[in-house]
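Contributing: when you submit paired examples, paste them exactly as shown. First protein:
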Amino acid sequence: MTKHALKIFVLIVAVVVLARLPGLFGKGPGPSLVIAPGYRVVTWAKKLGQPRLMVATATRDLIVSTYRDGTVLLLKKDADGDGVSDGKQVLLSGLNMPHGLVLEKDTLYLAEEHRVSQYHFDGNSLTKRKTILANIPEDGGHNSRTLKRGPDGWFYLSIGSSCNVCIEEHPWRASIIRFKIGTKSQVYAKGLRNTVGFDWHPVTDALYGVNAGSDLLGDDIPPEEMNLIEQGKHYGWPYVHSTKFKDPRYGPKTPKTLTFTPPVHSFTAHSTPLSIRFLKSKLLPTALVGRHGSWNRSEKSGYDVVKLIWQPDGTISQSPFLTGFVKDDNAIGRPVDVLQVPDGSIFISDDEAGVIYKVQAIK
């Protein structure tokens, strides 16, 4: 090949690579992201509005709730091998803050702010809606509802507080409830201001949840929590925060008979952990936590995905997994959910950039 021909070839390759960058990185942080050693990350789907929670279908598509957009999307798998989703379609629209998703064979369970419904899913559409839980409180704030099926067969639903800090009137507020279809629901645990993310330990079946604490108490108070959530336990809110810092208003009003359960791990204050997912691992139990980021802290915290490892001595270590969502002190991405699919790939939703990232181990 002559030098002139080589230059033309290099130019063509450069043009092709540059043309592919929008498809790989889209609107989001893309090239600024820093992934833990041994992994690579690409933007798998973009222009999704505000994607939140995800489930994988039997055909390797993703169903995604977009929460504030009021829609549920179907994102097609990467069948052509170009590294990105082959397209999207709207499955449902006009919903009331759709969030929690559970997919079991041809049935999708969907949690909106005020109800939980089931749908028939044929691989391309959702039909035959039926309400399975109604009358969920929808006054005030914290209107996302995370729904999961526990290893015990019960559905678990997190319902955040209606306020920053207050005494709730509705018993379901600031709690996780559980229910079976056709039976009366029950409050499982209380004192959880906003436990959006929860998951079960793959070995012990213990339930862990990450909790976003109260605002306006200072930059470093209270630390965000990860709790080992057990039936009948109370985790402090609104009387104490992280079961260590008494609330200036409600601390003195703590019922004398109330016992609080302390967190098993803490995160930087106001970093807003919104998800926890245990990974398939042959080593020590490992989970990823998506931290959405602070909104009123003088120095930003969160805006990342961190890895937690349950050590043999019972401690839990924390290390960065995916960072780079803050540039020049501006948030250009906000991680939400984490989902690992059967082939080991990890999907991460970002409701600020409107994208979903795909993380794979480097072989």
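Second protein:
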Amino acid sequence: MVGPDGWTTWEALIARVDRKTVASWVGGGRLRRIQPGIYALPSAAGEWRIRLEAAVHATGGVVSHRSALALWELAPPGGPIHLTVGHARSGRGTAGIVLHRTRALDDSVRRVEGLPVSCVERAVVDTWGASAGLTRADIRAAAIGAVRRRLCRPADLFAELERRPTLRSRGALAELVGLLSDGCQSELEIWGCLTVLRGPGMPPYVQQRRVLVGGETFVLDAAYDEVKLAVEMDGAAWHGSRDQRERDIRRDALSATIGWQTLRFGFRRLTGAPELCRRDILAAYAARRRLMGLDGVR
């Protein structure tokens, strides 16, 4: 009776069995009412995806906020289901559903696995203002992941911020989006950019510099073009494996064949001794200038 999705509607049920039978199934625990007019098998009633589909069907809303981030695989599912409806609709939700109202709904709707969902940039900004159990670090990670996976652009996030001048902690999110726009692709790169590369006395640099070597394209975390000095910020989770270390060695060697010197800084050193990292970069930068005869060139 329920079908492959694990849930069904009251109308679908009574089209096949009488009302008393449905009532007996519910009373006996064979079916659970998970939303008004929506029923599911007990084994499926607690599943997040089942609750999400049932909530969308029951309300006609669009998956939004934390629930949208989960559907975009940018945050873990959890808590009540968040949906957004048009401003003319009531904002009163049922058990397990939080309804939000907006005057600008249609332009933000996408579809993921058949379900209507807020576009990524709106989901990030909405969740920043109403975290729904996520930490600020969780939401920052969602924004970084969205840009890195090209689900949205920093410009899209900026556009959403323009719509929300009174957003809570708006300045902090704007700073993050600015760093993503500059080319940062992880919290480690953000830390390195703010604390090391933009530190006192540091020379200007470019981020996400592409170099072509022997038909291969590499992207440098940060580069001082005039002296061909690259700075790589290596996260422990990604660069800790033996295979990745070997790829890094090969990449640095190939870059050296066209004149690039690479400095690598791991998580522990970047976060624990940023002043020493700045000192090493400045020393290498000065040495490269002397090597290339650039001293005194303005």
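If you have annotations for the second protein, write them as plain sentences, like these:
The mean pLDDT is 90.
The CA atoms of residues 65 and 127 lie 5 Å apart.
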